[in-house]
Amino acid sequence: MKIVGIMLKRVLFYLFCFIFIFAFFPHQSKAAEPKVSAQSAVLMDQTSGRVLFKYNSNEKLPIASITKVMTAILAIESGKMNKTFTVSQEALRTEGSSIYLKAGEKMKLKDMVYGLMLRSGNDASRAIAEAVGGSESGFVLMMNEKAHVLGMTNSHFTNPNGLENPDHYSTAYDMALLMRYAMDNAQFRKVVGTRIHRVPATNKEVARAWKNKNKMLRLYKYSTGGKTGFTKKARRTLISTASKNHLNLIAVTLNDGDDWQDHQGMFEWAFARYKAIQVIKKGKLNAHVHTFYQNKLYVQRSVTVPLTNNEKKQLKKNLLLIKPKKDKHWKPASPAGRLNLYVEQKKLASLPVYYHSNYKEKKGFWSRFSGFLHAIVTGDGR
Q: Are residues 268 and 299 in the same domain?
């Protein structure tokens, strides 16, 4: 009985320890998500668009100067970056942060964009709007049109700088969509990743050097760019990007008093947890399909997504194809189907699959699809 009593005490002791650990340290049992001080936040994979972390990410909020990401990409896409424009008197009346342009000053649009993104110049935002859109109101129309095209369904712009206006708002998620689009542009990447930009002398001013306000470029070694923002209503807003081991990330926080730390924390969490995995290779699909499609299917692009070690084991691929007809002259529509990727029933990616009756893989150009796919042929199967 004495031995049984001792054993029972040990069991109760270990059970108590077990309950204590899980009650007070729940993060030990699973990978804890990042902790942020923001009212709204999102962490997105730039390559695939997969959202890795979110907190109130679709809440409509004022966004302050991260608005200028839209202004910059529209300026770059205008094709006028090397053209010289004259600064208007109206541009100088824009309140807030400034690069101290002068009325009548002649400056290349490219240098205005650097002043916009590195020093957050509101005078530069108005000058850019007039140069690209003909007027500020014309440029705002362009901003909202681009937002619509990009699927920024919870955003509306009233100015090119983010100055307070009840009808000027966005969400963390929408701004991540915008940044993902903008980061595909090499010139935009160069601008936001620049620490110091030197401006040649103009007709009104001597040569200048502008230092980037984005401290992430100095605080965090994997930082590749971003944009800061602040107004009394929006408080601190921040978009930043970082890259490590082929994983490219976008972080957005709105109303965050500890944004520098929060962005580094989100990046470190993702870099430790995820790896960029190529799950589909461009070229021929080797799959178990109807004989009509055998060796005649291909995809036009590769797909890389961030996955945890556990997600790699759970990844499922589902190929849906148009049911072949018995008519020997029949050919499927283009595309002939879609290839979908899932993890835990959540769709990670979807891309069209094409058919070619005489498809031949070109060595050195077409790559092979790794592994066989189990295909579900619509309405028929095998």
A: no
The domain of 288 spans 277-377
Q: How many CB atoms lie within 10 A of CB 29?
A: 9
Residue 120 annotated among the catalytic residues of the structure: yes
> What confidence tens digit (pLDDT) does each residue in 297-356 have?
989 999 999 999 999 999 999 999 998 888 878 888 889 899 999 998 899 999 999 988
Amino acid at 283: G
- Where helices occur in the chain by DSSP H, the ranges are 2-24, 68-77, 89-92, 109-119, 122-133, 136-149, 172-182, 186-192, 216-219, 259-273, 309-314
* Residue 81 DSSP label: T
Assess if residue 30 is contained within a domain.
no
Give the torsion sign (CA, 351, 318, 367, 291). Answer: negative
My answer on whether 239 and 333 are in the same domain is no
Whole-number pLDDT of residue 14: 55
2 in active site: no
The pairing of beta strand 297-299 with beta strand 373-377: unpaired
Task: State how many domains the chain has.
Answer: 2
- Boundary (domain end) residue, out of 254, 273, 292: 273
Banded model confidence at residue 10, pLDDT cuts 50, 70, 90? low
Q: Does 259 share its domain with 329?
A: no
Residues 52 and 123 in one domain: yes
> In the annotation, is 65 catalytic?
yes
The pLDDT value given to residue 1: 52
pLDDT of residue 24: 46
Please report, in angstroms and rounded to a whole number, the separation of the first and last CA atoms in the chain.
Answer: 67
For strand 373-377 and strand 287-288, is the pairing parallel, antiparallel, or unpaired? Answer: parallel
Does 174 reside within a domain?
yes
Domain boundary among 241, 273, 305: 273
Consecutive H or E run containing 225? strand 223-231
- Among 40, 57, 65, 97, the active-site one is 65
Determine which one of 40, 48, 57, 68 is catalytic: 68
3 in a domain, yes or no? no
- The answer, yes or no, to whether residue 33 has pLDDT greater than 50, is yes
Which listed residue (40, 57, 88, 120) is catalytic? 120
